[in-house]
Design a protein that fits this description.
The complex is a heterodimer of chains A (about 800) and B (about 160). Chain A is α+β, with helices and mostly antiparallel strands and about 800 residues long. Chain A has three domains: about 170 residues, Aldehyde Oxidoreductase, domain 4, CATH 3.30.365; about 200 residues, Aldehyde Oxidoreductase, domain 3 (Alpha-Beta Complex), CATH 3.90.1170.50; about 325 residues, 2-Layer Sandwich (Aldehyde Oxidoreductase, domain 4). Chain A has 20 helices and 28 strands. In chain A, the strands form seven sheets. A seven-stranded mixed beta sheet of chain A has the order 3-5-1-12-9-10-11, sandwiched between helices. In chain A, helix 10 packs parallel to helix 11, helix 11 packs parallel to helix 19 and helix 15 packs parallel to helix 16. The termini of chain A are far apart. With about 160 residues, chain B is α+β, with helices and mostly antiparallel strands. The relative contact order of chain B is 0.16. Classes of the chains: A alpha+beta (about 800), B alpha+beta (about 160). At the A-B interface, helix 1 and helix 18 of A face helix 2, helix 3, helix 4 and helix 5 of B.
């Protein structure tokens, strides 16, 4: 058998398997799927943020040529469709619990796929028009007459939390669904009482949206002869979508199949079933033919699960030498129009102290609803928000109390000697060299050479600033994953796994693992995902769990294959199983110079007649593991900006990132993940925001002309490096790399901007730090300085 | 309905279209050339970029009925003999794609950029010229590198 090429093993920047189809237009995204005889669905969506639904009149719509049916929430109830089974918290034991301080249960309310009685955000679907063509369905949707009773709306997070705010759910006491505490209030108060310095920071981390470039699309089919539903759609995990669909349809799990092929981005937005996915399969049953729905971008802006939106009030207490003593404050997370998800609230508050030694902390954590699109975890769920707060607090403390920014961080970073370190909320960080990684980033970013660059920029009339931010990320999420590996006599290896690649290149990096461990050619390994016809369990792709958990189950299955293979090889080599050695795809009888390949053994498993029962059949193994510890990737970014003080425009001139990935499987993919993560974080810091009118809840950023996406000319080339300090809580030492680009990017950008504007006395600029905001901050600071002079 | 006849990827084709049918709909739905993607509804994202009579256009902003007699090249037609176009090869070599949804439009735009700006493209030019193509996965880093390399490679072939 040919030796596997060195270049396809763990640690090599292998060219991606998936790319050939994607660069030639041969990929298969959701809207590329069409089924014979399919009809088309278009949603009738509410233009109002908060309204009681009086009536829907489909009479005119049904006369539009080509319209087949108009389905409403009452049809949905009559057919017994259940609400979307949201899980407000992910089920990982490493995360801290959050519960109402007064002991009452957290408020949740059913979220039906079509509005039953009350609209709670702009874009919520009220009815679905089914027609022969998309155009006919659109014409039909325009002809549906809806009678609304308008209600006062609230979109702003802090306003929605007030007791007198317009209430979304009549059966709730207020819009506050969860009011919890984390940390130790008493110890924190005591620490604040003897602090030499207290720094305060209040901010709002605005609402943004994930914007995967592929808009959602779904095709539903129903086989009446066997009562079986099929959904073709881009998901972050087919198995979980199937289970949720079965719950909504009220049918057995095996009556539903979900097929996901190429997925055009995810970033958290595809982490939960969407109403339309259930609607198309239900409509397929009603219509007696497949039904297809394709989301348009304006619908995506109104109805994709959005992210962030956290109001924070925070204080940091320091002693006279700048050692952190305690922090306290309050976080309010906005779930939008339904009680979809409060995971970002928890994921944030539990690492509020981030990577620093903070002996005591106490935070109030509230989850609220408002008349905005529902939210859920978005790339690095909850962490970029709180890391931004902590990194801003440190820079504010440095300026307020006269410390050096870097020295303050050095003094307070948790050291390797303190590991495992329990933070003041009870999270246990596994390991790492936090100070070493920061120093590496400072060196790569040439922190020491900055004063000269600033002086040079000033000579050109530009204000140059530099910022640094550290991060730690809690990788938890669904703790269980499963791999099913089969070695075929024809020289191929199949791995079935329950993750779905949404751009991360699993077909490549997972195949590298198999090549490494089984010594088989890289191009003979097939990674099979995304179809519940063969995927029997899978937690999907989120929380940095793709490679992190796939490596564990692929490792487990590989070892089982080798053990089983040794017993079969012993028969072929005529020796004792205990003496057989396995290396580079070959089983060997020591000393005899005789070998058989893994594929010979697979043929033996199929063909040998004298095998014991447990060895007969395909050479296959299943690994199904539950990993109840979290991993903690961490790292540091250094960014440098140049601002034109007359225009407020900004250019990023240097951007450095260092991440500890534990063990790198494919360096090219890792760097790519960091690049993209940085762009999403910088996008939030400088450009992006979902704008809702605070009084009406009207969405003002419903297209790419209104929602500012990062473009190529917003960035320089990034300087990214990684270190590999194995994680002791992962059997192979890996730490996820998908979210680290985003986690510190908000903080590092605003720190750099505040530094650039420090000469004007500007203390802070809220996100997104647009040219207008920067320009105003300079003008206001100059104005108040002028007043002081007078 | 209007009958429109045009040449797509070297093949003569003809279809009955409504007045409101867009070129991208003609390509995707009538001709099943699904490599050209629709990423938005305001001509911002560039996922639908194709070459119309040799020039890069966003096919979501062109009415199919206006393409009578036109010549259209899509991503499927960029490498007719099964050999990759140098720009496709460069995207693969430089890991310039992750999810791959924006990629066909990026590649078609990049080839058009070379037509307009030549084979020696500096970083600034590439970034400015990519204004009409949005990617959410890559931070553009490897896309810019791939376009620079692909442009040079196109000169050699």
């Amino acid at each position: 058998m040919a030796q596997p090429a060195r270049s396809s093993r763990i640690g090599e920047p292998v060219r991606r398997k998936e790319d050939l189809r994607l660069i030639t237009g041969a990929g298969c995204f959701s809207d590329d799927v069409s089924l014979p005889g399919q009809a088309y669905a278009v949603m009738v969506r509410s233009p109002h943020a908060h309204a009681r639904l009086r009536s829907i009149d489909a009479g005119k719509a049904l006369t539009v040529p080509g319209v087949i049916a108009v389905l409403t929430g009452h049809d949905l109830l009559a057919d017994g469709l259940k609400p979307i089974p949201h899980r407000p918290f992910s089920p990982h034991p490493a995360d801290i619990p959050l519960a109402n301080t007064d002991g009452t249960p957290m408020f949740t309310a059913p979220h039906h796929a079509l509005v039953i009685d009350k609209v709670r955000h702009v874009g919520e679907a009220l009815a679905m028009v089914i027609a022969e063509t998309i155009a006919a369905a659109k014409d039909g949707a325009e002809a549906v007459e809806v009678d609304y009773e308008l209600l006062p709306a609230v979109a702003n997070t802090a306003a929605a939390a007030r007791p007198d705010a317009p209430r979304l759910f009549e059966n709730a006491r207020s819009n506050v669904c969860l009011d919890a505490e984390a940390g130790d209030g008493k110890a924190t108060a005591a620490a604040f009482a003897c602090a030499a310095h207290v720094v305060r920071f209040e901010t709002w981390i605005p609402r943004v949206t994930g914007v995967p470039m592929e808009p959602r699309a779904a095709v539903g089919a129903y086989d009446a002869s066997i009562g079986h539903y099929t959904l073709h759609a881009g998901t972050s995990g087919a198995w979980r979508t199937k289970m949720d669909l079965a719950i909504m349809l009220g049918v057995a799990e095996d009556a539903v199949r979900v097929v996901t092929r190429d997925v055009g981005g995810h970033f958290g937005t595809r982490g939960m079933l969407y109403a339309e996915f259930a609607l198309v399969v239900w409509a397929a049953r009603r219509a007696g033919r497949p039904v297809k729905w394709t989301c348009e971008r304006h619908e995506a802006f109104a109805t994709d699960y959005q992210g962030r939106d956290l109001v924070v009030e925070a204080e940091l207490a320091l002693d006279k030498d700048g050692r952190f003593l305690a922090m306290r404050g309050s976080n309010i997370s906005n779930a939008g129009g339904h009680t979809t998800n409060f995971s970002p609230l928890r994921k944030g508050v539990e690492i509020m102290s981030t990577i620093y030694r903070v002996p005591a902390a106490h935070f109030r954590a509230r989850g609220i609803v408002s008349n905005t699109a529902p939210t859920r975890p978005y790339r690095s769920s909850g962490r970029p928000e709180v890391i931004y707060v902590m990194e801003r607090l440190i820079d504010l403390a440095a300026r307020q109390c006269g410390f050096d920014r870097v020295e303050l961080r050095r003094r307070n970073l948790v050291t390797a000697a303190e590991m495992p370190y329990t933070n003041p909320f009870g999270m246990i960080y596994d390991s790492g060299d936090y100070p070493g990684v920061m120093e590496k980033a400072l060196t790569l970013g040439d922190w020491a050479g900055f004063p000269a660059r600033r002086a040079e920029a000033r000579a050109r009339g530009k204000c140059r600033g530099i910022g640094v931010a550290n991060y730690v990320d809690t990788a938890s999420g669904v703790p269980r994953e499963r791999a099913e590996m089969t070695v075929h006599p024809d020289g191929t290896v199949d791995v079935i796994i329950g993750t779905v690649s949404t751009g991360q290149g699993h077909e490549t990096s997972f195949a590298q693992l198999v090549t490494e461990w089984l010594g088989v050619p890289f191009d003979k390994v097939r990674i099979l995902t995304g179809d519940t016809e063969f995927v029997r369990f899978g937690g999907g792709t989120h929380s940095g769990r793709g490679m992190r958990l796939a490596s564990i189950v692929i490792w487990g299955a590989s070892r089982k294959i080798i053990e089983k293979g040794k017993r079969i090889a012993a028969l072929l080599l005529e020796c004792e199983p205990g003496t057989v050695e396995f290396r580079d795809g070959l089983f060997a009888r020591p000393g005899a110079g005789r070998t058989v390949s893994l594929f010979d053994v697979a043929r033996g498993a199929r063909d040998l007649l004298d095998l014991s029962q447990d060895l007969r059949g395909p050479l296959a193994a299943i690994a199904d593991e539950t990993v109840s510890v979290a991993q903690f990737p961490y790292g540091c970014q250094v960014a440098e900006v140049e601002i034109d003080p007359e225009l407020g425009t900004l250019e990023i001139v240097r951007y450095t990132a260092v991440d500890d990935v534990g063990r790198a499987v494919n360096p090219a993919i890792i760097h790519g993940q960091v690049h993209g993560g940085i762009a999403q974080g910088v996008g939030q810091a400088l450009l992006e925001q979902c704008y809702y009118d605070p009084d009406t809840g009207q969405l003002l950023s419903g297209s790419f002309m209104d929602y500012a996406m990062p473009r190529a000319d917003n960035f320089p080339f990034f300087n990214t490096e990684y270190v590999e300090i194995p994680s002791p809580t992962h059997p192979l030492g890996m730490r996820p790399a998908g979210e680290g680009g985003t986690a510190p990017a908000l903080g590092v950008m605003i720190n750099a901007i505040a530094d650039a504007l420090s000469e004007f006395g500007v203390r802070h600029v809220e996100m997104p730090a647009t040219p207008e905001r920067i320009w105003r901050a300079i003008r206001e600071a100059r104005g108040s300085a002028g007043e002081r002079r007078r | 309905m209007t009958r429109v006849s045009l040449t797509v990827n070297g093949q003569r084709v003809s279809a009955e279209v409504e007045g409101r049918t867009l070129l991208v709909q003609l390509l995707r739905e009538h001709l099943r050339l699904t490599g050209t993607h629709v990423g938005c509804d305001t001509s911002q994202c560039g996922c639908c970029t194709v070459h119309l009579n040799g020039k890069g256009v966003k096919s979501c902003t062109v009415l199919a009925a206006s393409c009578e007699g036109a010549t259209v090249t899509t991503i499927e037609g960029l490498a007719p003999e099964g050999k990759l176009h140098p720009m496709q090869e460069a995207f693969r070599e430089h890991h310039a794609l992750q999810c791959g949804f924006c990629t066909p439009g990026m590649i078609m735009s990049a080839v058009d950029m070379v037509r307009r700006k030549g084979n020696e493209l500096d970083e600034h030019t590439v970034r400015e010229q990519l204004e009409g193509n949005i990617c959410r996965c890559t931070g553009y880093h490897n896309i810019v590198k791939a376009i620079q390399a692909g442009a040079v490679a196109m000169k050699r072939t």
